[in-house]
Amino acid sequence: MTNFEIIIGIENHVELKTKTKMFSDAPVTYGLHQNTMVNEIDLGYPGALPSVNKKGVELAVLACNALKMKINKILRFDRKSYFYSDLPKGFQITQQFHPIGKEGKIEIENSNGKKFIEIERLHIEEDTAKQIHKDGKTYIDYNRCGVGLVEIVSKPVLKNSEDVISYISKLRETLLFLNVSDVKMNEGSFRCDVNISLRPFGYEGFGNKVEIKNLNSLGNVKKAIDFEIKRQSELLLNNKLVEQETRRFDENIQETVLMRKKTDAIDYKYFREPNIFPIILEDSWINDVINNSPELANVKRLRFVNEYNFSIEDTNFLLNDYYLTKFFEECVTLGANPKKVLNYITSDIKSLLNKDNISINQSQLLPKNIVEIINLLDEGIISSKHVKSIIPICFENLTNVKELIDKNNWKLISDKSEIVKLLEPIIDKNKTLIQENYLNRPERVEKTIMGELMKITGGNVNPKVSMEIISLKLKNIK
């Protein structure tokens, strides 16, 4: 795209990971029966007064700090007149005039190199109800109504879809490891609106802005931006006006389509929220929140590479999944070798997760199971073959590993006298082979005998102990 400069800004709505809603004590849930998780405050009953969720404010402060923002020490809220069915009280509580965070930045890296993306503001507000359009009717689920959000608004400094994907990915990773939000695009806890305009190079004004709403995957974000850049460029090259409008991405035709025109800015008639007095956030409280912040993904990335000698590919594999990373770190805290844990996560465990399409926290597998399995393997009590049977059972059921091993007799034979008895007929059978080849090719003969031993025991023999006995016995054969 050589004819025009591309100007992109991003707005992200991020649901906060609190137990209750931002201004009521109704529970925050996902996927439960419609309209069962609401109360009088969410539904705007007369006389129902809001109260601020302290945990929600803590999470907003954590996000502001991680994004290097100036934190507003006075917490103030405003009313946004909002006469739609998805907010029944007729207004939304938000922070129009005094956002909790301003003037931040986040570093991204991709094929264009490293750079900082400036963030204009972060403010707290409440979510709207979910609307389902079906058979010409609109159904409303108020369970989401009132859930705490932070809206994070970048400055219009992004230049292409690659930078946008890098920005969104880094923002998601940051908020996920802070435990601020689940940031699940498919469940709506991390939503993305993209604003795009084009202008001739060297022109200082902005072209008409087109907003693309509710993009629900990184793939769709990229496709929508690339299509919209092409659409606007073709209009401008043909001396046509790019109209200011709101569009959405239609997955079926892989194009953005018109939702509504924007002739003028909507007057939301903002004013100070009268039912929530300003709250002073003391320096000591802000510092306590920041000092108790979870470790950021960037810090983990450096630690995994430097302390554990992990490759950047393995490190990123772990950090792409918050719950897998947490599982890994709990295993290491319990004393397991980091590389051995990683090997099981990237092979057996990941295979089971992919098969059931679930996260590790939705399985029954516990960190202590993996630690115990690794210890038993190191002690020569079980084999890698046994592990292949043990992990899937632990994955499906809460299980005591040692009891499972005893019940199924999944133990390696390690008793030397028993191994000697098993070896005697094998050595007798292969005496000629041993006498003719042992002096010239001892390793090959030892492996042949070991293979026979494994065969008759079904692999249930301690290889280290067995190989020591085999080597000693073969040396003594004349």
Short description:
The chain has helices spanning 54-66, 161-177, 218-237, 283-291, 297-308, 312-319, 322-333, 338-356, 367-378, 384-396, 401-408, 416-429, 431-437, 442-457, 463-475, and strands spanning 4-15, 70-71, 74-75, 78-81, 91-94, 101-110, 113-126, 130-134, 137-141, 148-154, 190-200, 210-215, 245-250, 255-261, 271-272, 279-280. It has 478 residues and is α+β, with helices and mostly antiparallel strands.
Topology:
Layout: E1 4-15, H1 54-66, E2 70-71, E3 74-75, E4 78-81, E5 91-94, E6 101-110, E7 113-126, E8 130-134, E9 137-141, E10 148-154, H2 161-177, E11 190-200, E12 210-215, H3 218-237, E13 245-250, E14 255-261, E15 271-272, E16 279-280, H4 283-291, H5 297-308, H6 312-319, H7 322-333, H8 338-356, H9 367-378, H10 384-396, H11 401-408, H12 416-429, H13 431-437, H14 442-457, H15 463-475
Parallel strand pairs: 12-13
Antiparallel strand pairs: 1-10, 1-11, 2-6, 3-16, 4-5, 4-15, 6-7, 7-10, 8-9, 11-12, 13-14
Helix pairs in contact: 2-3, 5-6, 7-8, 7-9, 9-10, 12-14, 12-15
